[in-house]
Every structure is written in C-alpha cells, then in structure tokens.
C-alpha cells in the first residue's frame, strides 16, 4: 500500500491558491464536493499535459525545419566561397618572359572565363544575400510575434489581472512596445521589399489575432477602472450645481495609485489605437496607393461618454414633449467636463503620439454623436409620425411648429458646442468633416428625406408669412429708404423687395447650419429657390393684371409695372452679388452628387451660382416687360402720328412761319414726353435707359419706313420742315443724353442726304457704297440711300 503523502505547509500557498480555495470551500458543507473537484483538476491537468506534448512536438518540428533550412543556406555559402576562391586564384596575373609564350594563351583563356563567370557569380551572391536578409527578418518577426502572443496570453491570465499587480501593467506595456517594433519592421519591409508580401501577410494575420484579444480586454479593464472611480457621476449633483466648478468630477478628484493606474490605462488604450491607425495606414497605402483614412473616434473618450449616454437617456424619456431639456442637459454635461479633457487627458494623448487628436474635440464630438443617435431613434420618428398622421389643418400646423422648434434647438445647440471646440484654437470649423462630427444636424446626412421634409415645412411657413405682405398694396408703392439698403437708390425697389429679402435671407442663414455642402445645396434648391419663384410669380401676375385691364394705357398701370420691374431687378442684383460669395461658390465645386440632390441636375456652371436658373428667369422677366413698356408708348405715339405720316403733300408745301413744328405732330410729341416722364419717375435709371433707347430705335424705324421710304417728294421747304420736326423729336430725348440724334441713325443719315446739293448727291451715289462711308452714312444701305435721294425735288 502506497504511503500517504503529507499535506504541504500552509505558508507555502500563494495568494492565488488561497483565493481559489476560498471560492471553492466557503463552509463545511462544501467538503463533500472534494472528490468532484479532484476529478476536475486531474482532467484539466491531463489536458494541459496533452497540450504541452503537442507544443513540444511542434517545437521539435520547427527546430528540425529550421536546422534543415540553415543547412541549405550553409551549403550555399560554402559553394559561393569555393567559387570566389577559384575566381581569386584563376585571376592572379604573374608576368612571364618571352620564352614563356606558350603559357600566354592559357592565361588569356583563364581571364576570359573569369570575365564570363563574374556577372552570374555576382547574381548568385546577391540572391544569397537576399535570402539571408529574408531569413533574418523572418526570424526576427517570428520572435517578436511570439513575444506578443505570450504577452497577450499572460495579460489574459485571470490571477494576474485580478491581483492588479504592477506586473500586469508591465506585461501590457511590453506587448504594446513589441507591437510597435513589429509594425516598424513591417512598414520597412513593405516599403523596401514589396516581393515579401506573403511574409507581411502572415505576420499581419498573427498580429491581428493578438490584437483581437488585446483590445477588448484593454477596454474591459478601462471600463472596470472607470466604474471604480465612480464614473459616471450622479446626475443629481450635476443638475443641481449652478456652476461648473461645483460639479463633482471624478477625473479631477482621483489621487495616488488610482490616478497613476487610470493614466496608465488611458495611455495604453491610446497607444493601441495609434498602433492600429498606423497599421491601417500601411495596409491601405499598399493596396490603394494612397493613405485614405476616415477619422476614428478616440476609444478612451468613447468609453467615458457611453455610460453618461446610458444614464442620461433615462431622463430623456421623461422629456419627449420638452426637447429643450434634452439639449440643455447634454450641453451642460459637455461643458462641465470639457476642461478636464484639456488639462488631464490631452497630455496623455500627446505622449502616446496619437497625432491629429484633440481630447476637447473628441469629447464634444462624442457627446454630439450620442445626442444625434437618440434624435434619430426616438425624437424624429415621433415628429415625422405626427406630420403624416395629422389630417386636420390645425393639427398639421401644430406639428410643423413643433418640427421647426426642434430645428431651432438643434441649430442653437450646435452653435454653443462649436464655440466650446473653437476655444481650443485647433479645429477649423470650415471643414465639412469636422462640422459633421460636432453638429446634431448631421442626422440629415443619413436621412435626406427628413431634410426634404424640413425644407418643405420651411418653405410653407415662409410663403404663408410672405403672402400676407404681398396682399398689402402699400408694400408695392412705398420705396425702400436709402439708409436701409445701400443699393436702393440705384434700383428704387418697393418695400416688398426688402420684406422678401428678409424671408430669403432667413432660409439661407438656417441652411448655413447644415454641416455638409451637398446638403446645403439640396436644402436651398428645395426651400429657397421656390421662394424666389413665388416672388417672380407675384411680380409677373401684377404686370399681367395691369396689362389685361387697360393694355397699359393708363398711367397707374405704367407705375405698377415699373415698380414690379424695380422689385425684380433689385432681387436679381442681390442674387448676382451672392453668386460671388464663397458660401455659394463652394456649392458649385462638385462636392455634391447631382443624382442625389433634386434640382441640381442642370447645375453645371459655378459662375451662375446655386440660384442660376432663378437669376435667368428674373432677367428674362425684366427685359420682357421693359420692352413692353417701350412697345406701349410706341403704340400710342404711332396712333397719334398717323395723320402726320399720311399727309404726303406737306413736304412740297411752303413752310408755315407761325409754327416751328408740324401741327399734326404736336399731340404725338406731347404724348411721348408725358408717358416717358411717368416711366422715368418710377422706373430705376438703368432700366429706364434701356427703355427710352429701345423706344428711340423703334421711332427711328417707324418714321424712316413710313416717310423716307414711302416715295414721298421733298421740296426745299419740305426738307426744312422735316428737319425742324426731327429737331423737336430729338429734343424730347435730349433730357437723357447729349446727342439724341445718335439714337435715330437712319433718320439722321436720311436727312443729311436730303440736305445735299443735287450734283453732289448724283455724283456721290454713282460712286456707290464707298462714297456713302466717306460721308458718314453707315446705317443706310446703298439701295436705301438712292431711294432717299430720288425723293428730293430740286427747284
């Protein structure tokens, strides 16, 4: 019978053994389970022995393979050395006397053979050197990866982790340092030896497997440490504190070993993330030819925010009808702890060499993202449901008000949190990527249909308010004061233009809060562009109403059309000025997808701006109705000059010395001056200039065709009368230019031909077009000039 072995001394038990026995035997009743425990331990020992045997066999196989490989490499070296020795002996040159001429041929042959073998030998040497470098690199990487795997397995040891000894942190730091060394070697290999891709891939596979175990464990330990610090803090103390200094911040109150342990965990987590970013950068660079990395949130900051998010959402559910409380709580939490990010955590991030990361920015970004996720999951679906379910106008109106109130809260919240980030002086808020991470309005990036709904609501609300202003006639007659709008003295717009511009500017200001350029363009095309179209429809309708009632024969209708043209031209000038602003220019730089943005399919020229179509429509409206004003005045003038034009005999009669102008022309000239004066008083200067110039051109054509081209005969007195009539006609336009006859080119040149002597005209016309040009006749053709000359009757 085997002798019974004595129990070991209790003093020889380790702390882990004590902990294990305490867990298994809590009272006397647990002793009955001893046989089962012994069996379990024996089974586990047997499995470990088997695993150790397998590992020993694998080690023996690996050593044998390595020995075989080493022997092959050694053989190659021996062969190379032998060839080098042979080359050295064969290439030695010894001078010989002429009597040794029989050996000269042999020496020359030896040198020739050596010259032929040298390139191939050098190639073999280079191959051997490459093999040697590969073997050394592979062995070094294998050793490093083995150290990493051992360190990872050690860090997974429950006894080592629960004891929280310094050895545990040392093992983790050793693993991270080894990982960095391995990554540096891999980066060098990938850069210098692209043909060793399989080696890099094999090492990457093993390292990724180690990181897959290391990162979750590091995050789990970090969470446990945060919990032991009392994070997250109680919201009762947070919400009751009136100042951020009164808020209990566990990050500031931790001391001694606890603070050292937290800083070590934070630093280790940042180092791990930096290492992963470095690996991703190398892998993407090798596969795509460039480094394309999206911003990755800071893991350690995310773990600070996640428990706060869970705790705060318990309060959010009670405030579904009061979203302003939700935004206020999130902002207060963000603001109260933002200083600790700069003072305590930022130095640790810098020490971990995590380039491009600001703890303040990451903290604010993580808080905003957590809020945005809650809005997407809980708030917006409720508001969308209210809009879709509301059938009565009052309920739908109330739902729209709630929606716009929520948007106002989001815009206000974004401005406040962005001010917290900008205080660090690091972030450029003009960059789309940065804005997306610190804007609650980024919810529209994934849900453009919600953006469309917002634009629709915004448009409806603006049009309702604008309609009341449109129907007030005084807004169309009273001019905008100069001190209100600097360019009002140029375009003389009615007050309705200023009111409309306020509504349009409000939509544009709200669009500036949208964090992505293509979404801003989408919002403006859906909300602002239809608003401009509505304004254009209003001014067009007023003009059409005036034309339909009296065909613009009444002075009041001319005033109405003139005011409408002024309003349209002023808005057109504002849109043209805006098109040169950076905010609108960047929407034309191709940073949007036309297929995804309705209304942008034809938006191809950045110079036109986002409102290019509307600008062209306003311009077309203005030119069309300026022409109609000219046509209306011309029509009335034509009707009053019919007797003057039909009286063909007057040009052969003697001149009436009592009248300086033909009697039948006086009424027409008075009408012309009266109508143009009314238009001048009401129309802006630029458009009035275009109008009277067009009118002068039409009158020039009318009189030239109806009189000079109508086979009328002019005597000397008739020419003098016609000249005086034209001088009076020119006088009507002399108020707006120095040489009005320049705007009646055909009448002026025809009158010049009529005043020439008979011989001069006949001789000149016989020379043709050259003579006409020499005498300043540029607007009449040769046939027209001959016809005018034939109408002259010389006494």
How would you explain this protein's 3D organization?
- The chain is an all-alpha fold and 795 residues long.
- The protein is built from 31 helices and no strands.
- The chain has helices at 15-24, 34-90, 101-155, 158-163, 166-192, 197-229, 235-240, 250-253, 256-288, 299-316, 323-351, 359-389, 393-422, 432-437, 443-446, 448-470, 474-477, 488-491, 495-511, 517-550, 555-578, 582-585, 612-640, 642-646, 663-682, 685-708, 716-733, 745-754, 758-766, 769-774, 782-790.
- Helix 20 (517-550) runs antiparallel to helix 21 (555-578).
- The longest helix has 57 residues, at 34-90.
- It is elongated and about 160 Å long.
- Residues 89-99 have a biased composition (Low complexity).
Round the mean pLDDT to the nearest integer and report it: 83
- The geometry reads as elongated
Q: How many helical stretches?
A: 31
* Residue share in β-strands: under 5%
The quaternary organization reads as: single chain
- Catalogue the unreliable spans: 91-102, 240-244, 288-292, 591-607
Rg, rounded, reads 47 Å
Give the end-to-end Cα distance, rounded to a whole number of Å: 168 Å
The helicity comes to over 70%
Number of strands: 0
Q: Largest sheet at a glance?
A: none
Broad structural category:
mainly alpha
Biased composition (Low complexity): 89-99
InterPro entries: EXOC6PINT-1/Sec15/Tip20_C_dom2, RINT1_Tip20
Organism: Camelina sativa (False flax)
Pfam families: RINT1_TIP1
